[in-house]
Amino acid sequence: MISDKNTGLRIFILLTTLLAASCTSDFSGGKYYTVAGFTQGTTYHVTYHSGDSLDLSFQIDSLLAVFDSSLSAYLPGSIISSINDNRDEPVTDTLFRTVFREAKRIHELTGGAFDITVGPLIDAWGFGPGEKMNVDSSVIDSLLQFVGMDKVKLVNNRIEKSHPGMRLDVNAIAQGYAVDFLSAYLEGRGIRDYMVEVGGEVRTRGLNPRGRLWGIGIDRPEFGNYLPGNHLEVIIRMSGRSLATSGNYRKFFEKDGIKYHHSVDPATGYPKQDRLLSATILAGSCMTADALATACMVMGLDRARSFITELDGVDAFFIFNDEAGIYRVWHTPGLRKYLENP
């Protein structure tokens, strides 16, 4: 399971400008505003059209501060940090409970490929905030006792862990939920044209400042392609849906000639070795798309492709290596009419 989306595959938002608290006149009157900043150890950008010239930068920042106080592992006093540190069995809030319940659902749906209890493994491999270990089979065996969604429960709004050494890592689902959280706020304010992006996860509705469907560029997964938008594989035009991408080419380490990527399989405890390089998922909920993208990377190409084709209301765009090491793509039929060359 991918834990650190902050340095994982990122997408490039195709906008003419993306400046904090900026605004431009649009094609039909009113203004498009863009608000940008930092949350959950990553960045966010929100662009929206307001016929009433509403600058919502303060409200958006305030909402994200509330969100971080619940689900950000980067804040020592957050609910999730308190749970991981076993401090006084903190009572969860609605935000945390929503993420936890969806994580449980996706865990069952994916046959265990998505698992938010992989924190100890992520740390051991050097992909998390904890101390990197000299990993061998005995270390993995010792850590697997702390992994498993059956070992953590939500009881009377509190989290019960079967062992204090368990650590929850919601990074592969919480950023998507932050997108849903902000999108719901904008729609509650009557805003119908917007793009919300948190850590590379996106939801759009309506039209962009140029009067077109929002264009989301998917990076070509080349090792060394560290600048989002520098080398795109495809552009996806979208409105009224959410998109999340997970990939394996930006966060890895090499040992004895083998690249170890940060998609850690909760079943084995080891980073997944597979031809699948990146998985982009489109769904109604960004939280769901985020978790499914992560699960696909853990499943690997063949299993993920079979899995996605059985889901209703979900589309996917996969980039992978063929047997000769050449980049190939696969996508669900529903995406075809929304794809553009960069």
Explain what you see.
With 342 residues, this protein is α+β, with helices and mostly antiparallel strands. The protein has eight helices and 17 strands. The strands form four sheets. The chain has a nine-stranded antiparallel beta sheet. Strands 1-9-10-17 form a four-stranded antiparallel beta sheet, with no helix packed on it. A two-stranded antiparallel ribbon has the order 5-6. Strand 3 and strand 4 (42-50) form a beta hairpin. Helix 6 (171-188) packs antiparallel against helix 7. It is globular. The two termini are 30 Å apart. The relative contact order is 0.16.
The overall pLDDT average reads 86
Distance between the termini: 30 Å
Element string (H = helix, E = strand) = EEEEHHHHHEEHEEEEEEEEHHEEE
Helix proportion: 25-40%
What general form does the structure show?
Answer: globular
**Strand sequence of the main sheet, in spatial order?**
2-3-4-7-8-11-14-15-16
Structural class, from helix and strand content? Answer: alpha+beta
Query: Which spans of ≥5 residues are poorly predicted at pLDDT below 50?
Result: 2-21, 256-260
